Structures are given as structure tokens and as C-alpha cells.
Amino acid sequence: MITLPDNLKRPFADHLLAVADDKLMLGHRNSDWTGLAPILEEDIAFSSLAQDEMAHAQALYQLIAGLIGTSADALAFGRESEAFRCAAIVEAPDEFDWATAICRQFYCDHFDRLRLRRLARSSYKPLADLANRLAAEEQIHVEHVDSWIQRLGRGTDESRQRMQRSLDALAAIAPSLFEPIEHEHELVAADVYPRAEKDMFETWRNELEQIANDSSLKLDLHPPSPQAIGGRRGKHTEHLAPLLEEMCEVYRLEPNAAW
Amino acid sequence: MSGSANVGVHVDHARDEDPAKLAEFEARITAGELLEPDDWMPQAYRQGMLKMAEHHANSEIIGALPEGEWITRAPSLRRKLALTAKVQDEVGHGQMLYRVSQDLGKSRDQMLRDLITGKTKYHNVFNYPAPTWGDIAMIQWLIDGAAILNQKTLADGAYGPYVRTMKRINMEEAFHFKSGEDMVLTLMSGTKTQRQMGQEAFDRWWYPALMFFGPPDKPHAEQLPPMRWRMKTVTNDDLRRRFINRFAPAAIDLGLKIHVVKKDDNGMVIEKKPDENLRLDETTGNWSFTQPDWDEFYRVIRGNGPCNAKRLALRRFSYEQGRWVRHAILRGNAGLPPAA
Q1: Residue B238, burial from CB neighbour count under 10 angstroms (0-12, 13-18, 19+)
Q2: Rounded Cα–Cα distance for residues A208 and A145 (Å)
Q3: In this structure, are residues B121 and B55 in contact, taking their beta carbons and an 8 Å threshold?
Q4: Domains along chain B with CATH numbers
Q5: What CA–CA distance (Å, rounded) separates B292 from B208?
Q6: Is A24 within a domain?
């Protein structure tokens, strides 16, 4: 295991925040479905997936908190929106539309599985161990969401149309997941943030296309511009501020209190 | 959460049944045997059990709503995870109880439709508001605590599938109660703002918790079919007494004050004064207390409580939003999920 040089701690934390913030926001959005999903059995399953994402975020925040000297809760609830590193797609609300929730999950889970497998090769052992464990759970998420894409893509005309509309609507912001983060090359050079084995975007798009084609659905995804500046640099969609306002409502009443 | 104590099962027990079979049935009940769905049972018993299990299932999925609203606002990662898991458990209880009800002859879709159209009811306690995080703590402590007391006695009933479901639910409820106790303790040992939040929420939930067990019993409740047939095993008043004896001293220990309150139409407290009848009778070990406002209870149960319309509207919204999904799953050419 390597010791992390001081000058890499902040950029490394930023990279891990991107992972943790994506997971927290996705878990937060999905947890809101608990009690309201279209089928009771799926309500229970989807809530478990949401809990996984939030628990993954918690574990990552704990790792980051150790690096930069804070707490997991302060990272989750005590930051202003510019300090978050999540991508535009996890900020997108679903308005309790199941097609939107499933398509958002589809784009994010496949990405997350690739990202976690990549992080599992980090020379920073605490991260490699954690990513390995989380990747195993992410695998279940991918299988679950793929089966929904297939069932609804092949279901009725209405369900296929709804799914196609949601896939299309989210296709514009899904590549935001790949937006570069500052100082990646230094971290890659030090091998703490491992190099992608092959083009991650292409791998992601191929995986998604295979499932979509198998489900009578079409995908239209374009790589993000390398110059794109968005959530990974703290520039967020209009959806993040209200999300944080709600999420931190109680915490902010007494930020230093135990709850 | 929940429990069916106030469902009000009215059973016409002797209606057109073969007296020999009825006698055999009652003998099995007296002997403490468990009845299974395929066993002979009076029509009134089957209908009564269906009504009870369905009401309980409805209560679980409506009960998920007031707490569900707070998942997105829980103030720490630990609480957020615990609350999501807790509400998920309630949905799971609903799912198990709908399956018990389905076995008694009613389809799930019919039950969900009867719920959202107001044909069937759910537990009255969920018609009260939960305006702060303190309410979430009090619901998990007082209402889950009340549900455990009640459901433990329902687990001594005679209908096998319901009894087994109660046992499983009670194990999970014990976690909810512990978590609620921890939340209340944290609030009451916190800052002034937190303690005030705890007290105000307690004032809102104390009386709904006392009403949780249903109205005072009819005379000779033990002789009437619901108890004679062990659909329920303890009277409402006895359950209420057990609750007070446990929770009144616990509340006082936590620094909470027990008030008699007056509420507005939104369920918010507008007047309160200490309960002057509250005291421990050293000889019996029982606490005396001021009875709930039973007029309010009947008003709320008839649909005029602070949140009746809101809870049903959200359930109806969820039912309607999900219709195309269920349609696609049931009637579309959906394939199996991919192999792992």
C-alpha cells in the first residue's frame, strides 16, 4: 500500500467525492420511492437498492473524511452546493415517473459498476478493498435494472414508448457522468486513481446498447465534450439546490448537535 | 407498525352454519389449535379474518406514508438509512399481510382499489400529521411501541397464517422500537431546540397512541366472537392499560411532560395543561390517566381527521402512476430477467 502524498490528498478526495456524491444523490432520489413504487415487491427491492447507494456513499465519505479531517455527515449535509461533485444525471428529479427512475438507474448503475471495478485496482488499498466490495453489490443493481429495461421495453406499446421517451430525455445528461475531474492525470500517474483499462465511455455505451437493443429500445449517446464544465467542478443543474435544501432541512437546525 | 385493534370486527357467529361443524371448530379454538386456510371455518370467521388482515395490510402501506415523507429530510446518514429501512419494513409487512388476505379470497388489486376509493379502512392513527423530525421519533417510539403490545397478543390468535405473520412482523417491530427509543433519547438529551421539538411532538402523539387500541370495549367483550374465536385475545382497555403502565413512567424518565391537549383541525396543539389525573396507584401498580376525546376518535375514523384526504390522495396517486407498469408486467410479452 502506498502512502498518499499531501499534495494529492485534496484532488484524490475530489475524485472520491464524485463517486460518493453520485451515490448519495441517486440513493436519495430512489429512497423517496419507498412506499410508492408501482408494485409492493418492487417497492421493497428498489428501496434496498437505494439503501445500498446511500450506504456506499457513507462508506466513501468515511474514507474521504479520514483523508481531509472531517466527518461523513458533515460531508453529506454540511457542504454548499458548489462543493458537491455529482453529475447532472443523478440530480435529475423523476416526479414519481417509474420510466424516468428506471432509465436514470440504468445509465448510472452500468457506469458505477465500471467505475468501481476501475477503483478496485487502486494502489491505495483502503479504496481498492472498498471498491471491490461495492462492485459486488453494484452487479446486483445492474442485473435488476436490466431486467426492468427488458420487461418494460418488451411489455406493452405504452410501456415501450414511455421507456423510449425517458431514455431519450436522459441521454443528453447521462454522459455527464464522464465529465473529467481536475488533476486526474496526477492521480493516475501516482496510480491511486487507476487508469481505465479501455475507453470507459465506449464500454459503457456498448453495454447499454446491448440491453436496449434486446429490449426493443434505441439509444443515442454521445461522448461528453472534454471541455465540459458541470457537476464534477461544482457547476450544478437547477435541481441540486432544492434537493439539498430538503435533505439538509433538519441537519441545519442544529448543525453541531447529534440527531 | 400498525395493528388491527380498532378495526371493529362485527361477526354474526351463528349464521346458517352446521351446528356439529361449528362445535368442532370452537373446540379446536378452545384447545389452542391453529386454523389453516383450507380448514373448515364459519363464513363469518373467514370474512372477519379477511377484514382484519386486509385492514392491517392497508394500515401498513398507509403507515409508510407519514414516515416516508421524512426519508429525504433525515438529519444524518445513519438515520436516513435506518428510516428508509424502517419504512421498507412496513411495506414488507403490507406485502405479507396482503398475501394472507389473498389466501382468504380477495385479489390484491381489488384490495388496493377498495383502499383508494375509501371502501375499506386503515388504522386511524395515520390520519394525524407529522410536521417535524420529532414526530418521526415519537411515531417510532410510541406508535410502534403500541403496535408491538397489540401485535404480540394477536400472535396468540387462532388463524395460522396471520399468527405466523405477526410473529415475523413483531421481530422487525422490535428493531423499529429500539430505533425510536434511541431517536427520542437523542432528542431529549440534546439542545433546547431539540428537547422542545421532542416535547411538542410528544404532545401531538400521546393521545393518538392511547386511542391506538380502539374505543372502550363493549360489555362482555370476552364472550363476543372476535375474542371467543381468538381473532383477538386481549381487550382494548386492557391493552391501553398495559401501554400507559409502561410508557407513562418511561416518558417521565426522559424528561417529557404528559399533557391533556386541545388540537385544531390540522391536528396541531392549541392548548395544553398537565394531566392532573395521571398518577400511579401503588396498590394495583396501574397508572390512572385522562381518557382520550372519543368524539375526536369517531370524527377522525369517519374521514374527518387532519390527514385522511392527504394520505388517501397519495396512495391513489401511487396506484394510478404505477398502473401502466403493472399492465406491462401482467399483460405484455415480458421475458424473464437475464441470467446472472
Answers
A1: middle
A2: 11
A3: yes
A4: 5-331 (1.20.1260.10)
A5: 8
A6: yes
Size of interface A-B (CB pairs under 8 A): 165
Contact (CB<8Å) B73/A72: no
CATH classification of the domain holding A154: 1.20.1260.10
CA B96 to chain centroid: 15
Distance between CA atoms of residues B20 and A77, nearest Å? 67
Give residues with Cβ within 8 angstroms of B128, minimum separation 6: B66, B204, B205, B208, B267, B300, B305, B306, B307
Q: Are A154 and B338 in contact (CB under 8 A)?
A: no
Owning domain of residue A160: 8-253
Cβ separation of A39 and B327 shorter than 8 Å? no
What percent of chain B is helix, strand and coil (3-state, nearest 5)? 65, 5, 30
0.90 surpassed by pTM = yes
What residues of chain A lie within 8 A of the CB of B198, using their CB?
A: none
* Residue B43 to chain A, least CA–CA distance (Å): 29
Answer yes or no: is A1 within a domain: no
Give the count of beta carbons closer than 10 Å to the beta carbon of residue B316.
16
For range B90-109, the mean pLDDT: 96
Q: How far is A191 from chain B (nearest CA, A)?
A: 30
Distance CA B250, CA B187 (A): 15
Residues of B in contact with A253 (CB under 8 A): 75, 193
The string of pLDDT tens digits covering residues B257-267 is 999 999 999 99
Q: Looking at the DSSP assignment, which residues form a beta bridge with residue B281? A: B286
* Predicted pLDDT at B10: 60
In a domain, A259, yes or no: no
Answer whether residue A166 is part of any domain.
yes
- Burial group, residue B285, by CB count within 10 angstroms (0-12, 13-18, 19+): exposed
pLDDT, block means (10 residues), chain A with 259 residues: 82 96 98 97 98 98 96 97 97 97 98 97 95 97 98 95 98 95 90 88 97 97 87 96 98 94
Total domain count, chain A:
1
